[in-house]
Structures
1.
Amino acid sequence: MSSQLSRLLTGPAAALAAFCLAFSLIATAAEPLEFNDPAMEVRYQKLTEELRCLVCQNQNLADSDAPLAQDLRQEIFEMLQAGRTDAEIKTFLVDRYGDFVLYRPAFEGNTLFLWLLPSLLLVIGLIVLIVNVRRRSRLPAPAEEESRD
Amino acid sequence: MIARLLPFLLFLALGALLAVGLTIADRKTELPSPLIGKPMPEFSLPVLGQPDVIVTRAELVGQPFLLNVWASWCVTCRVEHPVIEALAQSGQLPVIGLNYRDEEGDALAWLEHFGNPYSLTLADTSGRTAIDFGVYAAPESFLVDSRGQIVFKQIGALTPEVIEKEILPLLATESQR
């Protein structure tokens, strides 16, 4: 086991691991923030991961180094310190930037289709599967499988 | 028959969905502002170059104006500058500048170099007021009516077409009220 591991950790795999590690260190773009309360820090992490950076729209606030993302992280930090709830902080951002800022949009009338489509597709897939399996089970077994036995 | 055609129809539906997605992909980076139709947010900002002179929201409400978010580091703002200048010179709509996340010296030098079309420029050095306006890039422009409501937002550079087709008609309906 250990020899396998050491073999894995040399050569290209190690290079790849080092590469990924280096990038993950760069990617955590965070100001040194002083949290008195560890629970608040957890909430901060969770919020900045669930909120979208509006400048580079496929990154969340936690990962983005854009100036606006820094401002918004600071804003979220201050609101947490001021005792605002997670819901209040999200509402603050939605009021200014719209639903798009949420990576996890609210379950509402205009997002119903977005939320239900995956389940709907699953149900359709299951129906197609069941119909197919039933139909095949009614067919006589193919001749070639019999001869293979 | 239908069962035979089903995969093909699904393929067509998927193709149509992707085609629609591709055509809206370009526009999708411009987010509709939730502030349209809402009152302009409260603020209290110093005038650019005059840190002691503070202007609040209440002082600006009363006549329609265009609030143009710009910065000396913003390249597109240079492209937009002649359009803003032409609008301001036409006298149809005063343009108020919101200098966004900028250094005072850089901002003043920029106005000196390109010309100052703004009847007033407010300095939002921290970017805090811009957050209340939902600004996420410069340039952005907000049309504010005489009651202090935001009636239109342009993300990116203003063009003569946008002024002609969007802003001036909105201004005309405003003056009829």
2.
Amino acid sequence: MPRVQLSEVTKYFGEKLVLDQVDLSVDLHEVVCLIGASGSGKSTLLRCINRLVKADYGDIYLDDVPVTDQRFGKVGLHKRIGIVFQSYNLFPHLTVLDNLTLAPRKVHGKSRKDAEASALEQLDRFGMNSFAKAYPEQLSGGQQQRVAFVRALMNKPDVLLLDEVTAALDPELVGDVLGIIKELKAQGMTMVIVTHEMGFARDVADRVCFLEGGRILEEGDPNRMFNDPQHERTQAFLDRIIEAGRL
Amino acid sequence: MTDSQSPQTGSLGGAERRPPPPPPGRSYNWREALAPSLISLISIVVVFGALAWVITSAEQWPRIKLQFFNIDAMIAAFPRVLQGFWINMRIWLIVLVCILVLGIALAVIRSLRAPWFAPFRLMVILYIDLFRGLPALLLVLLFGFGIPALNLPGLPSSSLFWGAVAMMLSYSAYVCEIYRSGIDAVHEGQWAAAKSLGLTEWQTMIYAVLPQAVRNVMPAMMNIVVALQKDVALLSIIGVRDAVREAQIYTASTFNYSSLIVAAGLFLLATIPMARLADYVTRRDRARRLQVGG
């Protein structure tokens, strides 16, 4: 049974077709990387999964239950699907600790004491304990992104969506965040990852999907995808990446 | 003195690279510091002295002095004008608190996107169009004279109260728009992050967006605070005995305008520190942004 399943998902931004009847299914513990040029629709596809973007047509299922189902309510879905963004999107006016406890307290009704205890526990796992009282702008980009991971993991989600999480980082900090993702994979987290880091995608993905023009043109095992792409568009995309020295 | 240490560092051997020592700290040199200040002081004295001499030696000066800067008249008018000014300050503070609260409420209503909010959004838009489009003076006259004349049961009938309400309604429209610009300036990613954590639109507004918006608009809001401080004097038109009114009363009985100068002095005494504070807040805000941006 797939954990996440998308069926014929279509999305328009105004007149522009961004997603064209996309089918995608992600199994339990599977890591799927979405690759493709800017504007290919991969970020939109990712955001359709947790309904940050509402698909115009098509169905999205989490454990065979439509994400629009009343059973999820508004909160349930977000408790089970976490997302980390390219630009961290931490709340700049709140300390790291308050960033982490805001949702548990206000959405899930935990007491401040419980929320802070579990936040500190999570921070400890990521070696960030000493930053609990710091404000996001006092941290480096890599540290902020780590806090964003902790925030997304606070609710112990079943699925984690990563939207170009290394794109805003200085090169020497990228490895740090990629390490976190590998660790999460080792723990069995189901993940859908939009990335420009092809080397990383090959390393960590169980399956790679190449998007162009709002459609998945080709998908498959990462080694097969990168070494022997079948579709000419995939080939052209990978050639451009190699030319840019990023594979 | 500075040279005496260099042979010692040299003797440690060439293998170890050492950065050059920090440049000698600028010790405070009285001659260097004094000369420019002295020159500015002298030039200020000369220029302003010359101006004062030109003005006071004018043929009409004694009449001007008598009319506007009569010390006796100023002393005589001062207690009443000060008493009036105290009323200004109290109205200012009360109206200020009201507009800051009302403005934020209007801005939040205007910014929430839930469809069932539409009628309230529309009401706020109409409110802003109406009260921003009308002169504050007209509103003060309309409310300050008009409503007390109705003798509405259960409502206060003092001109002061209704005049203050008029100021509040007028200024809230501006303050609402300032808050709204601050809300709009909060990055879309903040909404996305809050939503992805399960926060409702209302919770997002209260816990994530509004605190940032208020911080964004602090400099602009300080200007409103200063403007309101002066504009409270509009209430003198409906008979509120504020500083301007008291000064006018004195003028009417003596045909001497020095009392208005006293009132002017009191206003400056209050507004100039506020303006400086506004500048300071703006500067600090910009420094903070630059720091974050870099």
